[in-house]
Each structure stands twice: as structure tokens, then as C-alpha cells.
Design a protein that fits this description.
The chain has 252 residues and is of the alpha/beta class. The strands form two sheets. A six-stranded parallel sheet has the order 4-3-2-5-6-7, with helices on both faces. A two-stranded antiparallel sheet has the order 1-8. Helix 7 links the parallel strand 5 and strand 6. Helix 1 packs antiparallel against helix 4, helix 2 packs across helix 3 and helix 3 crosses helix 4. It is elongated.
């Protein structure tokens, strides 16, 4: 018999809708780069680089995909992949190495500025505040959002960027790292996320409770796995667990 002591959360598409954010960020930071570069080169009386938003953006994507294949241990470190791909693209387009490094870094700064402009679900902050009174909380994400700059950062004293560990989910490493920092055994923890492959299965295989956020999927669930359609339904899962295990005790 074990008591639930900690809850870990995925971020994107768990605590906020990420699809629109990524689309705006992807388009916005690259357009910013091309426009800023054009103005910079014009001020220096230099010709514009032969990079368009469409063809350059496609080349940028292909470079990231190729780099992920060439350096598989970095495949989940999306910031690194983007930065190195931009550096290579700009240098190939004719910038000196130093200028390519400078502008790639500037573009990634713009990327992160846009990336953190997420809008958490209206219930998220209140829910996390209430949960923090009873459980230790942590964030585990494969995304490359700046964790300390995301709007719910204050609720997560432990925040794990799995790609920076070179072990993106479903690798168990980010889960074990979070549990170690929380000093909590897997059977005393619950993970909440929207991905069956990256959130639910690795957590369940470690012996954690898992809550799967899915509006449409309906399939038999293994032991210690629960499904909800929205994060606002999480308290009902916790209440059911408490109702089945007197005094807030959880069996496994």
C-alpha cells in the first residue's frame, strides 16, 4: 500500500493547446530572421541573401531532419537542432561564420519569445495551485519551451526538458530524473499527459499511475491508467482513487 505523493505533468497539449502556438512560432521566427537580415544587409549596402520564406523554410526543416538522423542522440533536443541548422543554412547562403552564428542565435531568441506565448487552459492555474497543497509537482516535456519562462513555471519546482537530457520521452530517463529530484518512488507518483506512447506507456511501465488526456480514443486501459478528455477532469480521478482506498491510500 502506497500513498500518492507526487504528480508530474506533460505541458504541450496537456496544460494548453499547442498547435496554434507552434504554427505561429515556426512561421514567425523564420520570417523575422529573413526580414531582419534583409534590413541589416541593406544598411551595410550588401545584396540580400538568396533565401525566401518558402524555399528557405523547407530547407531549414530538411536540415533539421537530416541532422537528427546524423546525430541521433540529439534527436529530441529541438533547440540544438534548430540552432545548428540555421547556422549551417546561413553560412551556406553566404554569411561569414561569425555572422551566421550571431543571426542564428538571434532567430532562436525570437523563437523562444514566441514559443512561450501559450495560453494555459482556464482551469490550469487553479488546479495546480490546489494540487500543490497536497502533492509535489513536476513538469516533464519533450518540447523546447523555456521552462522558467512558461506561464505556469511557478507551480513546478522541478521541471525536466527531456531533449536536453538527450533522452526524450518515451525514454524512462526524464521520468526517473524527475522522481529522483522529488525523492519519490514511481509507485507513489502519477504522470499526466496527452501522448499514449510518450506519456502513458513509459509512466505505467515504471509503476507510476498514469492519466491519459484524450478526447476521442477509447480502448481498454491497463492497471493504474486512467483516461480523461481534459485536464479539468483530473480531480475526479483523484477523488475516485481516494474513494477506493480509505484515508487516501493507493494500492498497486
Amino acid at each position: 500500500m502506497t500513498m500518492l505523493q507526487a504528480i508530474t505533468f506533460d505541458l504541450d497539449d496537456t496544460l494548453w493547446d499547442n498547435h496554434g502556438v507552434m504554427a505561429r512560432t515556426e512561421e514567425g521566427h523564420y520570417r523575422w530572421l529573413l526580414e531582419a537580415l534583409e534590413a541589416w544587409r541593406a544598411a551595410r549596402q550588401e545584396t540580400a541573401l538568396a533565401l525566401s520564406h518558402e524555399s528557405g523554410g523547407l530547407d531549414y526543416l530538411q536540415r533539421r531532419q537530416q541532422l537528427a538522423k546524423e546525430v541521433p542522440e540529439r534527436r529530441g533536443d529541438f533547440t540544438w537542432l534548430r540552432l545548428r541548422s540555421l547556422e549551417a543554412q546561413l553560412e551556406h547562403a553566404g554569411l561569414h561564420r561569425s555572422a551566421a552564428l550571431m543571426w542564428a542565435a538571434a532567430a532562436m531568441n525570437e523563437f523562444h519569445r514566441l514559443r512561450v506565448q501559450v495560453t494555459p487552459h482556464p482551469e490550469a492555474a487553479g488546479l495546480l495551485a490546489a494540487l500543490a497543497e497536497r502533492y509535489q509537482l513536476a513538469a516533464i516535456t519533450n518540447g523546447n519551451i523555456h521552462l522558467k519562462r512558461q506561464p505556469l513555471a511557478g507551480y513546478f519546482p522541478v521541471a525536466i526538458a527531456a531533449g536536453e537530457l538527450l533522452a526524450p520521452k518515451p525514454d524512462p530517463t526524464p521520468f526517473l530524473t524527475a522522481l529522483s529530484r522529488l525523492n519519490v518512488a514511481p509507485e507513489c507518483a502519477m504522470h499526466v499527459g496527452d501522448s499514449w506512447q510518450e506519456d502513458v506507456l513509459p509512466a505505467q511501465q515504471l509503476g507510476m499511475h498514469a492519466v491519459w488526456i484524450s478526447e476521442t480514443e477509447d480502448q481498454p486501459l491497463p492497471a493504474r491508467v486512467h483516461r480523461i478528455a481534459h485536464i479539468k477532469e483530473l480531480p475526479s480521478i483523484l477523488e475516485k482513487l481516494e474513494a477506493h482506498h480509505s484515508g487516501g491510500v493507493y494500492s498497486h
